[in-house]
């Protein structure tokens, strides 16, 4: 049975939809999307446990080894992971397409230990050389097709030192199937969000997420805005092929289920895959 709170939210959504001034649907590009939602990102992701995520990535880095401690965090967002990596001794550069996300990152305690740079993963500039590259929290899933993912992998390979390690997460097929049926509400005192997942019109793979956000300063007047996230699906053989084509040796792909890393992947059950690859040393 639906809760009373949900019914009220649903009515509110229907009323707002019929208002003359339709809500602005940002999402023309990932940069616009994240610039618009940046001020809310930390509150929206308040339940994510970055200590656990960063510790998991660090365990993988230690397990496979890296030539040094220069780390680039790809799609670093508001810096929650980047700052934790820096606190545990890495020399960190955080890269993101959204200047607003990075503005918030730079205001975080500990940000002075991180270098932040605005850059697009699809066209990475020369940011120096790194021993480790990480991408956590799904930045690669925002890339629209194989060409873009291949471009990103190639760009990262150009930044890695010989023997450098790449660790990234990517969503599973099962996650998208479940997520595309999501309808949920996140309620805070001054904000109410409706999350609606769907299959993307683009290719029927991956998932779209529309977030309708109602915010208030005084509890009386509510402003509505909307965001559209579009995630692509990259199957395991596609990722393996692109890694090979862009010069990596794939070391291992883990499955992530219920927060636990598993040595084998269950593409239906698992939430994500965690891919570990290396830029090989040139032959002597
Ligand atoms: C879900 S957020 C994750 C942020 C951060 N890694 C975390 O875990 O909190 C995805 C991030 O990827 C960034 N992103 C998406 N596409 C990108 C691209 N092509 N180039 C650079 N950053 C990108 C977004 O701006 C956003 O900050």
From TrEMBL:
GO molecular function: methyltransferase activity
UniProt cross-references to Pfam families, sorted A to Z: Methyltransf_25 (PF13649)
Methyltransferase domain location: 72-164
Single GO BP term: methylation
Entry keywords, A to Z: Methyltransferase, S-adenosyl-L-methionine, Transferase
Record-given protein name: Methyltransferase domain-containing protein
Organism: Actinoallomurus iriomotensis
């Amino acid at each position: 049975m639906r809760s009373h709170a949900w019914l009220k939210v649903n009515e509110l959504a229907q009323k707002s939809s019929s208002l003359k001034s339709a809500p602005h649907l940002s999402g023309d590009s990932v940069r616009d999307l994240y610039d618009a939602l940046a001020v809310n990102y930390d509150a929206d992701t308040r339940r994510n446990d970055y200590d656990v995520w960063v510790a998991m990535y660090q365990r993988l880095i230690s397990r496979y080894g890296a030539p040094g401690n220069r780390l680039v965090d790809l799609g670093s967002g508001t810096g929650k992971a980047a700052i934790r990596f820096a606190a545990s001794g890495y020399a960190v550069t955080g890269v993101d397409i959204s200047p607003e996300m990075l503005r918030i990152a730079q205001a975080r305690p500990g940000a002075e230990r991180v270098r932040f740079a605005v850059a697009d993963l699809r066209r990475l500039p020369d940011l120096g050389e790194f021993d480790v590259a990480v991408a956590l929290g799904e930045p690669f899933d925002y890339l629209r097709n194989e060409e873009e993912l291949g471009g990103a992998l190639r760009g990262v390979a150009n930044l890695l030192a010989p023997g450098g390690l790449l660790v990234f997460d990517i969503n599973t097929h099962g996650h998208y199937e479940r997520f595309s049926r999501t309808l949920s509400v996140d309620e805070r005192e001054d904000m109410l969000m409706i999350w609606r997942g769907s299959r993307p019109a683009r290719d029927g793979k991956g998932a779209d997420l529309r977030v309708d956000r109602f915010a208030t300063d005084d509890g009386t007047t509510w402003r509505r805005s909307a965001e559209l996230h579009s995630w692509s699906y990259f199957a395991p053989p596609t990722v393996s092929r692109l890694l090979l084509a862009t010069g990596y040796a794939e070391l291992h792909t883990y499955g992530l289920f219920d927060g636990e890393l598993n040595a084998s992947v269950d593409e239906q059950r698992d939430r994500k895959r965690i891919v570990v690859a290396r830029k090989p040393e040139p032959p002597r």
